[in-house]
Amino acid sequence: MENDIKNTKKLLFGLIFLLFCLPIAVEAELSGRIAYAVSGFNEREGRLDYNLHMTTFKNDDDYTTLPLNQTGLYTTWAPHEDILYFVQRVNTEFHIFSIDVNKPRQKTRLTEVGGTYRFLAVSPNGKKLAFNGYTSEQQQQENQIWIMDLKTGEMEKATSIPHFGRTFFFYGISWGPESRRLVFSLERSGGLEQLYLLDTETKEVEVLTEFNIDYYPVWSPDGQKILFKRWNREFDTLYTIDVETRQITALFDVDKNTSMWSDWSDDSQSIIYSRWGAFYLYDLEEEKTRRLFEVDGGIFTISWWRAEPLPVEPKRKLATTWGTVKRKLR
Fold first, then answer.
1. pTM for this one?
2. Cys-Cys link to 223, which of 14, 18, 40, 177 (CB 3.0-4.6 A)?
3. What band does 311 get if pLDDT is binned at 50, 70 and 90?
4. Which domains does the chain have, with CATH numbers?
């Protein structure tokens, strides 16, 4: 009898120990804040427009959202600061502005010459602003990637892609963590949109993906992967590509025409994305999605503030100029 009691106690102790050792699923903890534009009516202009908003993540059940009292598109955060950059329409052209989100009514215009500017991206070191477009003094065919020195305000054309008299479009730009390389999507002949890497110092361009319609690339903070969206006939798919190995991994499919935008978390383990007027969080390790919150209107672009970008060692790669664009052997 006494031995039975001892054996029972040992068994119970073993079960309790085993329970403590079992892995516990913990949902990714949200931190920081996101900026985005929401479609709505502009009473001052008497037309539909996009209004800027910011949501701060305090805990999993509290999404404190603040309207920033500015219209605009293509929001992007300055690292380590409360500065937000965006594109705003002024009369018949567009300019790039910045605001301190603590004083959002006071804006600073960064572009001296107006034009058509899209897809802003601030370098992780906070020194440069990349975007694509053309000025009001240029033709639409002269659409290129520009880099602005945020200290001096000087704009430099970073690409010289031949247009042969045909208008082409960029569909997304994102910096690598070393603040030297850019990934961008460019529409070429045949209706394809491919991803390319640009070395901003040498101006060399490298093909990243081919023979598909790939767009909205976002480089992960740890520098290892690039998130992008691929068009399919029945649905679209969110993918990642390993920057070093070029291995492409499908994450999940989404319905077409859902105004889907996305960005990475600080630790590169989660992705926030939108569908119409709702935000979702996807955990890459768990391969699970959870719905976060909804806003009154359609969402346009998302920028997740990155307080501490991970250190990345820059890797030099051989490449060529645009005339003989390098292709990665597969």
1. 0.84
2. 177
3. very low
4. 31-327 (2.120.10.30)
